[in-house]
Design a protein that fits this description.
Length: 467
């Protein structure tokens, strides 16, 4: 099959810088979506003997997206690209070839790895026609769970991710905390990825966050997921969209959370719905109900007076059929976690997220992003407590690279998340308190709002970790 390249007009649209809108009007709910084809898990590139050697080609191509032929930005020719699957202690040698008309790069979201050199360095620019060789060496104690990868090419992160540049990373080892007869259960990637359309192209120019959009699972509209009554499956719920939130519910059945942002929990907890702010992930156990059909939905959600309103939509249909199974019940306790409640603190900081009234400029501590300025300097092998305050009338999705954190409180109320995370939504005119350890790696990295429209419009800061 001949490979098609994106045309000049489409490429210009695909790489234009996003127009930010802080108070988009909420659209009417889209019409019901017909039940689709069986869920397709992404192809996998899997490490062997401690190393994964892979190549990602970034280019514009006409691909099948949710049953339509559309121009999109792709990794290896796919709107839903390969899952990179590794183990703790592995190496990842990844060659990235850029066939776009603008520079790009790669961020391995949530992974505890060096932010410098040829590792998770978001200051790298891979220019058109260049191939950059990433080299990641992961620690032996790397947390097991679901991560993701995406473009972090400032100020084009929003357009490039909205155009299709996002995929899944799995670090194996999560199932070892389950009883033996649950270690071979079926697992599915449930990658939540939305797209807007302009003509025959996945839209990247003048993106409005609240505009009508197509919410897909693994690039499919309302795919069918099959399960047997009583069967337990592992679902890797991942918000890998550029800007939007998902409040996910499986009608009539709770989720059993075993990891949050690729951090195994110390105690499995149940939830009727889960809020996946931009960039967030949950690994969950799902049990098949009585024979029949039920919907995986995203519920209506409002991020505040200056924010965005997301309507209810059907994401997938779960079909329970076949012989009843009686697997072992999951345990209550799960994985060991470290509690930072009594940690010795090297510093306490206040980090303020804010924006202008027009919703066109975004700030951290009153300043817009400058890659040549260090905003926070922290010492290796210490723990800090940050109060992250939101002085705006909309939620922001706080994310920090390199090191995860323990969420201590939200608006002054103690929070028990049963583990660590790398992303959290800050309420409008509210605040969170986190405690974060700086371990293993020094170098320059970033913290930012993971609503990528906001990041591109200035809501990012440089964090330098020093000895």
């Amino acid at each position: 099959m001949m490979r098609s390249r994106i045309g000049p007009a489409c490429l210009a649209a695909a790489l234009a810088i996003t127009t930010v809108s802080g108070s988009d009007a909420g659209p009417s709910p889209p019409p019901p979506v017909r039940e689709g084809a069986p869920l397709r898990d992404p192809p996998q590139l899997v490490s062997h003997n401690g190393i994964l050697r892979a190549r990602l080609v970034v280019e514009g191509r006409q691909v099948d997206v949710a049953g339509r032929k559309l121009w999109a930005l792709t990794y290896n020719g796919h709107y839903m690209p390969p899952t990179l699957r590794i183990r703790p202690g592995d190496r990842l040698e990844l060659a990235m070839e850029n066939r776009l008309g603008k520079y790009t790069n790669l961020h391995v979201h949530g992974l505890h790895v060096s932010p410098s050199g040829h590792s998770d360095n978001v200051f790298v620019h891979i220019h058109p026609g260049q191939t950059f060789h990433y080299s990641y060496r992961f620690p032996a104690n790397l947390a097991s769970g679901t991560y993701w990868y995406h473009s972090h090419a400032h100020p084009m992160s929003g357009p490039q991710v909205a155009g299709g540049l996002s995929g899944i990373i799995v670090v194996d080892g999560l199932k070892r905390y389950l009883p033996p007869d649950l270690r071979d259960i079926t697992e599915h990637v449930i990658a939540l990825k939305d797209f807007q359309i302009q003509g025959n192209t996945v839209k990247t120019k003048d993106l409005h966050i609240s505009a009508p959009t197509n919410r897909t699972v693994n690039g499919q509209l309302n795919p069918t997921i099959r399960i047997r009554p009583g069967e337990i499956q592992l679902w890797r719920l991942s918000n890998i969209s550029a800007n939007i939130y998902y409040k996910v519910r499986l009608q009539g059945q709770p989720f059993q959370v075993i990891a949050h942002d690729a951090n195994p929990v110390n105690r499995i907890w149940a939830a009727d719905s889960l809020l996946l702010a931009a960039g967030a992930r949950f690994d969950v156990l799902v049990r098949g109900g009585p024979p029949g059909r039920t919907q995986l939905q995203t519920l209506p959600y409002n991020t505040g007076p200056a924010g965005n309103r997301f309507p209810q939509a059907t994401l997938a249909t779960l079909v329970s059929e076949g012989a009843l199974t009686h697997p072992t019940a999951p345990p209550t306790t799960f994985a060991p976690t470290e509690d930072l409640s009594h940690a010795v603190l090297a510093a306490r900081r206040t980090v303020v997220f804010s924006e202008n009234k027009a919703g066109t400029e975004y700030y951290i501590n009153g300043r817009q992003f400058d890659p040549n300025r260090v905003d926070i300097r922290s010492k290796l092998n210490t723990v800090e407590e940050w109060t992250v305050r939101n002085d705006s009338n909309e939620e922001h999705s706080f994310h920090v690279h390199t090191n995860d954190f323990q969420l201590m409180s939200i608006n002054g109320r103690p929070h028990e998340g049963h583990g660590w995370q790398d992303t959290v939504s800050i309420p409008p005119n509210g605040q969170i308190v986190i405690r974060m350890p700086f371990t293993d790696y020094t170098g320059r990295t970033v913290l930012h709002c993971h609503i990528l429209n906001h990041e591109d419009a200035g809501m990012m800061a440089v964090l330098e970790i020093v000895k």
